[in-house]
Structures are given as structure tokens and as C-alpha cells.
Amino acid sequence: MDQFPNFKLFIDKYLPWLAVIGFVVTVSANGNVWLYFMAVLIVFVVVAIIDLLFKYWNLAKILGIMIVLLVLGLWLNR
């Protein structure tokens, strides 16, 4: 994966923003945070497979953002 630095840069730069946008759209569309959570879970399975294949990715930052958004969404929709 080191031969594709632009791909890694794209992931590091835009994936957190995509997570935020997806969260806002999901909550504003139908208020179903669990739908967002399940989508995130599916994304993590895919990312974990990619991670095992390419062995370079730091997921801690993205995971932290996802958890914060989930907790915030559940709190807003209580």
C-alpha cells in the first residue's frame, strides 16, 4: 500500500469528514442512530479486512470519532 500514498492521504484526510456527514444526514433524515451504527459496523468490517490485507492503517483516530458521534447521536435522540 506504500506505493499509493495518495490513497492513504485521501483516507486520512476525508474519512472522518465522511463519517460526520453520514452521521448528520442519517440523524436528520430519520433520527435512527442505530442505522448509522450498523452502517459504521459494516464499514469497520470492510476496513478491518483492508487493514489485514495492506497492514498500514491506524484506525484508532477514526474509531474514536465514530464512537463520539454515536454517543452524541444517542444523547440527542433520547
TrEMBL record:
Name the UniProt record assigns to this protein: Flagellar biosynthesis protein FlhB
- Protein species of origin: Lactiplantibacillus pentosus
Any idea which UniProt keywords this protein has?
Cell projection, Cilium, Flagellum, Membrane, Transmembrane, Transmembrane helix
Question: Transmembrane stretches, by residue range?
Answer: 7-27, 33-54, 59-76
Q: What is the lineage of its organism?
A: Bacteria, Bacillati, Bacillota, Bacilli, Lactobacillales
Q: Which domain of life is it from?
A: Bacteria
